[in-house]
Design brief:
With 604 residues, the protein is α+β, with helices and mostly antiparallel strands. It contains twelve helices and 32 strands. It has a six-stranded mixed beta sheet, with helices on both faces. It has a five-stranded mixed beta sheet with strand order 7-4-6-5-8, with no helix packed on it. Strands 21-24-23-25-27 form a five-stranded mixed β-barrel. A hairpin with a 4-residue loop joins strand 19 and strand 20. It starts with a helix and ends with a strand. It binds adenosine monophosphate (AMP) and magnesium ion. Adenosine monophosphate binds next to helix 3. The site of magnesium ion has 6 residues, from loops.
C-alpha cells in the first residue's frame, strides 16, 4: 500500500503547467496570467469632472459662502459638456461651463462646483459655495499612468482584475488554458438522472459531480459519458479521448469485484497502474498517462463519497497544477471536534463534517453517515477532516486539521445584519450556501471576537476581521517634524525654494497619501476617509507637520494620519533638497485619537 503523499507525488510528477494561450478577456476568469500587463492608457484618460455641476476658475468663486448673505457669485454659462463629448469651449475668467460627471474638463477651468451648490441655471448660474483648485476634478493619470505594469505574470484573474484589464485597454490576455477534461462513469447499473430506473439500477451521480467539481476551479468538462462494464469499450473510449482532451477521469470498476473491468482493461495501458492507498475512503486508485500526448488518466473508485474525496485529494491538485495554480487551493485550518470520532488504524481518514466558526474558533461536527455511499451526508458537509493514520480515536474537543470546502462559516458584511430581503413567504426563496442554519442571526450577536492580533498561531500575518465591530465616528491626529538648515528655513519663509511652493505641495502630498494608506500598509483596512487636514508650520529650525483625519468606520484611522505626516515630510525633503541636503524627519507619532471601543486618547 502507498501513503497518500506517495501516490500524490507520482501524480504531480506526471503533470506540468500547460503552455500559454491568448484568450478573450471574457473567457479568462480564474486563469493564471502569463504576461506582465502594462496599461495602454492613462486612468483617468483625461482631466474630468467627478460631479454634475459647473466647471469654473476657482478664483472667480472664492468668496461664495452659504453662511454669508450676498456672497453668492453669478457667472454666465458659456457652454455645456457631457461624458463622451469634447470640451471645445474654454472657461475664461468670469465664466462657467455646465458639466456632467465623467465629462472632459474645459480648458481654463481648475475646479468643479457641484450642482447642489448652485441654482442649476443654464444661461447663467448662481454659485453659493466657493471651491479651491482641484475640487471635484479627477486628474488624468491619477489612478494609473499609461505604460506602468498594472498586473504581473502569475496573477490569477478575478472579477476585480477583469475590470482593471478592461479599463487599461486589454481585450485579450495570455493565460494558461483551462484543462479540457473527459469524465467517464462506468457500471451496468447506471441510468442518467431523470431517466426511469428498472430494478437494480441507480442514477449516475459521479459524472455530474465530477463535472461540477471541475468547473469550481475553472477546468472544463468537454466529454461526459456513461459506459457499461465492458472492458473493450473502456479501452476504445479511453484511446479516443486521449487524442482529444487534457485529462481523463473514470469512476467505478477499480475494486475487487468480478466486474471491476476498468482495472483489468486499463492496467498497463500507457503508464497506468492500480494501487491501494492508505486512506479511507478512496483506497483503490488508478493513475497513469495514456496516448501520445501523455494525457493523465485518473481511475477513481465508484462509490460517490470515495470518488469525491479522491477528486479532492488527487485530481484537484493535479489539474490546478496544469493551470499554473497552487495545487491545494483549499484553506487548511485547525478545528475542534464537537463529537468523538473513530478512525481506522494505519489509514488516513478523510471524514466529512459540518464546520462553523464562532468567537473561540472553528468547530466541526462529523456527519453521521461516514460510509462511502452516503451522498446526502456528503452534501450536508462543508468540510473534510484529516485524521492521521496513527490516530484511531478522537474525543470531543480534540483538535484536527480541516479543509474548508466552501466559504460558509464566515461573517456576513455588517449591513446584512440589519437587512434581510423579503422572501414572499417562500422558505426556499434564498439559497443556503452553508450548512449553518442561520449564519446571520449567529453573527449579529458577535462581539469583537477573540483577542485581536495580526499574527496567527502559525506566525503568518493576517488582516483582522472587523465586520462585527461597531461603526463610529473616529478621528486621529499625528505630528512630526522635518529638521532643516537656516538656509532652507529662510528659503521657505521667503518663498524662494527653486522647485516652487514646497509647503503647498507637501500639504497636497499628505492628503493624497491618506487615500493610499491601505495599499502601503499591508494589514491596514481600506476605510472611507471623510476629511483630512494637513498643517505645515515653519519654525526656526524645522517644519512642524500635523495631520488630522476623520472617518465613520469600524476601525481607527491612526495609520492614515501617520501616513499623511510622513509623506508630507518626505515631499518637503524632496522640494528643498537643492537647498538642504541634510533635512531629517523626526518625531512622527500619533498625538490624539477619538472614537472606537478603546476610547479617546491624546498625547498631552
Ligand atoms: P464499483 O467501484 O464500480 O464497484 O462501484 C462501487 C459502488 O459505487 C457501487 O455501489 C456502484 O453502484 C456505485 N457507483 C459506481 N459508479 C457510480 C456512479 N457513476 N454514480 C453513482 N454511483 C456509482
Ligand atoms: Mg461498477
Amino acid at each position: 500500500m502507498l501513503s497518500v503523499e506517495e501516490h500524490l507525488a507520482t501524480i504531480l510528477a506526471a503533470v506540468r503547467p500547460a503552455g500559454p494561450v491568448r484568450l478573450a478577456l471574457s473567457d479568462s476568469l480564474g486563469l493564471v496570467l502569463c504576461e506582465d500587463i502594462r496599461s495602454l492608457v492613462d486612468l483617468p484618460g483625461f482631466d474630468n469632472s467627478a460631479m454634475d455641476g459647473y466647471a469654473v476658475r476657482s478664483a472667480d468663486v472664492e468668496g461664495a459662502d452659504p453662511a454669508v448673505q450676498g456672497s453668492a457669485v453669478t457667472l454666465p454659462v458659456v457652454g455645456e459638456v457631457a461624458a463622451g463629448g469634447v470640451a471645445t469651449i474654454p472657461v475664461r475668467p468670469g465664466e462657467a461651463v455646465r458639466i456632467m460627471t465623467g465629462a472632459m474638463l474645459p480648458r481654463g477651468a481648475d475646479a468643479i462646483v457641484k450642482v447642489e451648490d448652485t441654482d442649476g441655471g443654464t444661461e447663467s448660474v448662481e454659485i453659493r459655495e466657493g471651491v479651491v483648485v482641484g475640487t471635484s476634478v479627477r486628474p488624468a493619470g491619477e489612478d494609473v499612468r499609461a505604460g506602468t505594469v498594472v498586473l504581473q505574470a502569475g496573477s490569477v484573474i478575478d472579477a476585480r482584475r477583469v475590470a482593471l484589464l478592461a479599463a487599461t485597454g486589454h481585450g485579450d490576455v495570455l493565460v494558461r488554458p483551462r484543462p479540457r477534461v473527459a469524465v467517464v462513469s462506468t457500471g451496468a447499473e447506471l441510468v442518467a438522472p431523470g431517466g426511469r430506473l428498472e430494478p437494480g439500477q441507480i442514477h449516475d451521480s459521479n459524472s455530474h459531480m465530477l463535472e461540477a467539481a471541475l468547473s469550481e476551479f475553472g477546468a472544463v468538462t468537454t466529454h461526459r459519458l456513461t459506459i457499461g462494464d465492458d472492458g473493450s469499450e473502456v479501452v476504445r473510449v479511453v484511446e479516443q479521448l486521449a487524442e482529444q482532451v487534457d485529462a481523463i477521469l473514470t469512476s467505478g470498476g477499480v475494486s475487487m469485484g468480478a466486474y471491476d473491468v476498468v482495472k483489468e482493461a486499463l492496467r498497463g495501458r500507457g503508464t497506468v497502474d492500480f494501487v491501494q492507498v492508505r486512506m479511507q475512503p478512496g483506497k483503490p486508485q488508478g493513475f497513469g498517462t495514456v496516448g501520445e500526448r501523455d494525457v493523465p488518466l485518473f481511475a477513481l473508485p465508484g462509490n460517490p463519497v470515495s470518488a469525491y474525496v479522491s477528486f479532492e485529494v488527487f485530481v484537484r491538485p493535479a489539474l490546478r497544477t496544469m493551470m499554473g495554480l497552487l495545487p491545494a487551493g483549499r484553506p487548511a485550518l485547525k478545528t475542534r471536534l464537537m463529537h468523538q470520532l473513530r478512525s481506522p488504524a494505519g489509514r488516513i481518514q478523510i471524514a466529512r463534517a459540518v464546520a462553523a466558526q464562532d468567537a473561540s474558533g472553528w468547530h466541526a461536527d462529523p456527519v453521521w453517515g461516514q460510509a462511502s455511499h452516503f451522498i446526502a451526508d456528503l452534501s450536508r458537509a462543508n468540510a473534510l477532516l484529516v485524521i492521521p493514520a496513527e490516530v484511531t480515536e478522537l474525543a470531543a474537543g480534540d483538535e484536527v486539521e480541516m479543509w474548508l470546502l466552501d466559504g460558509s462559516g464566515g461573517r456576513a458584511p455588517f449591513w446584512q445584519n440589519a437587512v434581510r430581503p423579503l422572501n414572499g413567504g417562500d422558505p426556499g426563496a434564498f439559497a443556503q450556501d452553508s450548512a449553518d442554519p442561520d449564519p446571520v442571526a449567529r453573527d449579529s450577536g458577535a462581539s469583537d471576537g477573540p483577542a485581536l492580533t495580526h499574527v496567527r498561531a502559525d506566525g503568518s500575518a493576517h488582516m483582522v476581521d472587523i465586520s462585527s465591530k461597531e461603526v463610529t465616528a473616529r478621528e486621529a491626529s499625528a505630528a512630526g517634524r522635518v529638521l532643516l538648515s537656516a538656509d532652507a528655513v529662510a528659503a521657505l519663509r521667503s518663498g524662494n525654494v527653486p522647485k516652487g511652493d514646497a509647503l503647498a505641495v507637501a500639504r497636497i502630498a499628505g492628503i493624497q497619501a491618506v487615500k493610499r494608506t491601505p495599499e502601503l500598509i499591508p494589514l491596514a483596512h481600506p476605510i472611507a476617509v471623510h476629511g483630512v487636514d494637513v498643517d505645515v508650520d515653519v519654525a526656526d529650525d524645522a517644519v512642524e507637520i500635523r495631520a488630522t483625519v476623520r472617518t465613520a468606520d469600524r476601525t481607527g484611522i491612526e495609520m492614515e494620519a501617520l501616513t499623511a505626516v510622513t509623506v508630507a515630510a518626505l515631499t518637503l525633503i524632496d522640494m528643498v533638497k537643492a537647498v538642504d541636503k541634510h533635512a531629517r524627519i523626526t518625531d512622527v507619532r500619533v498625538i490624539a485619537k477619538s472614537g472606537g471601543r478603546s476610547g479617546d486618547w491624546s498625547e498631552s
